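chain below, 196 aa
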Amino acid sequence: VVLNFAEVVIEVLDADTGSPVAGAEVTIGGRGGRWGGGWGAGAAVANVRATLAEPSAEGTDADGLIRVQVEKAGTQNASASHPDYEDLRTKVDLDPNGPAPHATLRLKRSVPCSGRAVLPESFMESDSRGFSIRREGQRRGTQYVSLEEGEDFSVSGLKPGTYTASAWAGRRRSKSLTFELGSQGNSNLVLEFEER
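prediction:
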């Protein structure tokens, strides 16, 4: 099979300030790996190849740009992610013959979430301990936080909302608890876990 790729330029900007977002990972269509990251059944296999605007850069360059090789023009799935921003999944209409940038993705800043996790005393005997958090109503996107170095934690990439957390230590599990993250996040969160 011979694939004829056309190059498009994708721009990633901060949704509030309009500033370029450097270091964002971008995927157009496809099914995972460097060749894409489509979601859902029917996503085309290997229909995108990302190349960097600056070969030494990781993700988008300082101007928020990344060059992407696409197999076809038209409407395609697009995703972008960056540790300081909420993940974005959307559709873009790509025309390689049009003016660059061919699509602009706008990322919203994530809210800070840091503080202290208090584990049951029996959990402290384990060398492997931490907790998981997931936003309510979200089937994917569980984040795991290791607490092997102490009680302090910091989690990035979260949206405002209600979250469920549960701690682990080896095979032990805690009761679940819920907490809220408002539009400003929370940098002094205290999560007190109870043994199941």
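The longest strand covers residues 6-14. Confidence is low (pLDDT under 50) at residues 31-57.
thats it, cya
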